Amino acid sequence: MKTGTVAIIGRPNVGKSTLLNALLKEKIAIVSDKPQTTRTRILGVVHLPGAQFALLDTPGIHKPQHQLNRRMVRTTMDCMKEADLLYVMVDATAAPGPGDRFAIEQVREARQEGRPPAFLLINKVDAVNKSRVLPLIDAYRKMLDWSEIVPLSAKNGINVDRLLELTVAALPEGEAGYEEDMLTDQPMRTLAAEIVREKILHLTRDEVPYAVAVEITSFKEEGKLARIQASIFVERDSQKAIVIGKQGELLKTVGTEARVEMEKLFGMKVFLELWVTVKESWREDEQTLVELGY
């Protein structure tokens, strides 16, 4: 059996989590158009005839400005060390920029003698004219010794099956490391917290996303009902006002959308309560970061 670990690497906001969900055919990672949406390592398991491999969705590689961000980048570097194959993602809608070069340089430094092999994945090709793709391939080809270069669209599924074929061919032989029905190692509490955070990212202005964290303070299963209480942390009173919204309408929308998605994912009814709390400079507080799972 072909088996191993594949780490998805790249600068923020290139579509890593979207690709993870596409390859698993299930949504286990939150997605948004805000950079640094993914803050921790997320594992998903792909099961194919004659193959099984773990996918590691990682935080985007960037130059960190807070303790939280330093932890995020360190998580990504650690994932590269345990991988048998790297997916290095870039965005077809933009020319290679400083963020891409920085991410690829970190990949180069983490590899030893060309190992593990690295695939260049040029994402979002559905959003550009085909004539733009070949120049991008030429530009990136010079930056690293890629084992494969795959233009694709994680969102629309273009070339995703081809990527799976190439991945299986590149993985080593081994024994299956996961049960056949295992999809992710993310506990329900973590998934619930991330779903709430995703809805906030979608509904709030640019000021808020980086300063928001969600902690599940209570998760009780009562038969086919889950009672969930969550605290939403922000760093300033102005951010708290944004998350709550006029007459509480935005927070109510967050709660409704999160509840509906949780019920679909967990297969049970959900009763969800949300509170918003100001916790100044939580991104620099080591104890808070540990408590939040970062």
Concise summary:
This protein has 294 residues and is α/β, with parallel strands linked by helices.
Task: Walk me through this protein's architecture.
By secondary structure, the protein is α/β, with parallel strands linked by helices. The protein has nine helices and nine strands. It starts with a strand and ends with a helix. The chain folds into two domains: 2-170, 3-Layer(aba) Sandwich (Rossmann fold), CATH 3.40.50.300; 188-291, GMP Synthetase, Chain A, domain 3.
List descriptors.
GMP Synthetase, Chain A, domain 3; 2 domains; 294 residues; alpha/beta; 36% helix; Rossmann fold
Write the layout of secondary structure elements.
Blueprint: E1 2-10, H1 16-24, E2 42-48, E3 51-57, H2 67-82, E4 85-91, H3 98-110, E5 118-123, H4 133-141, E6 148-151, H5 160-170, H6 188-203, E7 213-222, E8 225-234, H7 237-244, H8 249-266, E9 269-278, H9 286-291
Parallel strand pairs: 1-3, 1-4, 4-5, 5-6, 8-9
Antiparallel strand pairs: 2-3, 7-8
